[in-house]
Amino acid sequence: MEFEIPDGVTHSLSLRVEKRHTAKTVGSGGVDVFSTPSLVALLEQAALEAVQKFLSEGWTTVGTRIDIEHCKATLPGEEIQAQATLIQCDGRALKFSVEARDAAGIVGKGRHHRFIINQEKFLRKLHEAAKSADP
Fold this sequence. Notes:
Layout lengths: L9 E7 L6 H4 L9 H17 L6 E12 L8 E12 L2 E10 L2 E14 H15 L2
Antiparallel strand pairs: 1-3, 2-5, 3-4, 4-5
């Protein structure tokens, strides 16, 4: 199946930092600031939503690589804007430039790769592999 997703497609979304997003709560640190795992999830969500509208029913994308720099801390209550921009579509392989900002500047930035999958086929193969691995 061919996918026609134009390079340069962007998607932005925002998030108000809550306690559940903090490093202390998610277990990635001891401080109540926006966590790196929450930053990764936000950037992945922006990339997913950027291309989902171009895919047929039953198709989606999965993250395969993320390389980000978490540049600054953000306190609970502050709002973060995330943006993903598709920089390359090579068949089913997608590459994005991602960035998140708060009122004081860049929170995180980097690159993210996703791969287009057929959900049913992907899950079937995964379940078959799990069954064959059982003793």
